[in-house]
């Protein structure tokens, strides 16, 4: 796997949804190991930017590359190498934590050892790993989704309001998890309205306004 | 990842979900049994029941398949897993075949049990010279039903009113399979004609199985995306 310094490179990117320019000339560079917080009002383009980086939206104009792959021509490759966590976790509530992580890991060729390591890394080991996901807390389900990303070997984590629906304890757990993941080399972009919480975690804060990246502040 | 590996992972996952939730065992099997018993009561004639037994088995299978398909895609929709599979760039053809294999295995077991119920309830007799036709029709019809169910289950999954939409989509499409499988099994059991008369009907079912398999491979991705 190639190690590139710039994980995301957007240069004057326009994304048009219907007739509406959801991104209107956005430029952003994210380097490996960074935690970038996207902040801005509803409709500013934060989620669009995340979905673009996940390879889910076509680029109408400009240059966009993720993990060295051009988003205009190699979106399928990008999809397989990034993890997007939205408002839902994309998990199977009838399966156990371990079975969920094993399934998602198996899609990327992860073996049992890699799956076990992902479960341990997210603090889901022990008896919890064999509990049906539907019987676990919202925070544990979020961490299971992140464990699936680890097992899938996602190199770029795109998190859209990851704290939504979690209580204070679960939010603390999630922050701890994200901090550890970044320490282990993951690159993370977070869109959040939890500015104080996510800002404390971020290495850089980016303001998104009217589909453009306006200001970038290192923390 | 190779398509076959991903398809197998999806199939194993679906069967594991079923083993845990036991919807097929606790809901679909009793439902199918009730349908078979109600047919027997409604027709209320041994001669008629013996004559139409193959059609009743396939009808009960078809009704049960709808319950299985709706359950299969409800599991995917509950926490956005089907969307997550697409977002993760997983080959949609592999997802289609994985889900179709899991559904086919469940249907195959159900059909054997329903045929057994027909033997007990309707006094259907099996003929040794019709066994090859019976087994090949069983395989082809199961594949056809599983591929159609998976394809349209995926299409209906993202829509409102999917519970009512799915039978509306599936019933007209599987009509040739139902007719062909019924005629072939009638011939295999000797209730109408001889086993030799059933092979053209088997051919019809096999053509539909191949067509739906190929169609699902190509169309499943665009269908669930839209």
Structure notes:
The complex is a heterodimer of chains A (219) and B (226). Chain A contains seven helices and ten strands. By secondary structure, chain A is α/β, with parallel strands linked by helices. In chain A, the strands form two sheets. In chain A, strands 6-7-8-3-9-10 form a six-stranded mixed β-sheet, with helices on both faces. A four-stranded antiparallel β-sheet of chain A has the order 2-1-4-5, covered by helices on one side. In chain A, helix 3 crosses helix 4. The radius of gyration of chain A is 17 Å and the shape is globular. With 226 residues, chain B is mainly α. Chain B has eight helices and no strands. The longest helix of chain B is centred in the first third of the chain and has 33 residues. Chains A and B meet through helix 2 and helix 3 of A and helix 1 and helix 4 of B.
The biggest sheet of chain A amounts to: 6 strands, mixed
Helix content of chain B: over 70%
The share of residues in helices of chain A is 25-40%
- The total count of helices of chain A amounts to 7
Shape verdict of chain B? globular
Termini distance of chain A? 30 Å
What structural class do you assign from the helix and strand content of chain B?
mainly alpha
Number of strands of chain B: 0
Strand fraction band of chain B? under 5%
Order of helical and strand elements of chain A? EEEHEEHEHHHEHEHEE
Overall mean pLDDT score of chain A?
88
Features:
heterodimer, A: about 220 residues, alpha/beta, 6-stranded mixed β-sheet, 4-stranded antiparallel β-sheet, about 30% strand, globular, B: about 230 residues, mainly alpha, 8 helices, about 85% helix, about 0% strand
Tell me the layout of helices and strands:
The complex is a heterodimer of chains A (219) and B (226).
Chain A (H helix, E strand, L loop, with lengths): L5 E12 L2 E12 L3 E5 L6 H8 L7 E6 L2 E2 L4 H7 E4 L11 H10 L5 H10 L16 H14 L4 E5 L7 H16 L3 E5 L3 H7 L2 E6 L2 E7 L1
Parallel strand pairs in A: 3-8, 3-9, 6-7, 7-8
Antiparallel strand pairs in A: 1-2, 1-4, 4-5, 9-10
Helix pairs in contact in A: 3-4, 3-5, 4-5, 5-6
Chain B lengths: L2 H19 L1 H21 L2 H33 L2 H7 L4 H30 L9 H27 L4 H28 L9 H27 L1
